[in-house]
Amino acid sequence: MAMNQEDRNSTVPVSSGKDSVVLDFLGCSYRATVRLFKGLPNRFMAYVKRKIKEYRNRPKRTDISRVYVVVGYTTKKRVDEKFNAERRMMIIRRGLLALIFLLVIFIAVDRFTNLINYGELSQIFGVDSWGEVIENDPFADKTTESTSFIVPGTSETG
């Protein structure tokens, strides 16, 4: 059933090319938005079900190391060997990291102590030795006869 030119003009509104493109874009955007909002509940439920299934099917973990699932042509022995090798590498990495940290601290302390001029510091604070600091200690336990504790019922002389 072929349409002639007169039938086409009567069924389709005549508009400029620019208006037609805008109307097509708006119609497409509207349909896509409606489809998005209609599909949100199904997508959300599928996501939740997928996460629950992943949680149920994952292997049990007893520590922070990677868990292997035996798939294909491997054995438990090979998986255990790989697990132990990775565990040893983690221990070595942690030890080296601690050693590097200690070395950095020692180097920093050495550099800072070389920068300090102790003669100038003693002049600033007015202290030449630790003996002077300890000699004037206000919290030192100095007991005298006037401050000593006398137990009631005893004589002061002995």
Which stretches of 5+ consecutive residues score pLDDT under 50?
A: none
* Distance between the amino and carboxyl termini: 137 Å
- Overall number of strands: 0
Q: Structural class, from secondary structure content?
A: mainly alpha
The biggest sheet, with number of strands, parallel, antiparallel or mixed sense and barrel status, is: none
How many helices? The count is: 5
Shape: elongated
Strand content: under 5%
Calculate Rg over CA atoms.
43 Å
**Average pLDDT, to the nearest integer?**
79
Could you give the order of the helices and strands?
HHHHH
The amount of helix comes to 55-70%
Description of the structure:
This protein has 158 residues and is mainly alpha-helical. It contains five helices and no strands. It has helices at residues 5-11, 17-57, 76-115, 118-125, 130-135. The longest helix is centred in the first third of the chain and has 41 residues, at 17-57.
Features:
mainly alpha
In short:
The protein has 158 residues and is mostly helical. The protein contains 5 helices and no strands.
Write the layout of secondary structure elements.
Blueprint: H1 5-11, H2 17-57, H3 76-115, H4 118-125, H5 130-135
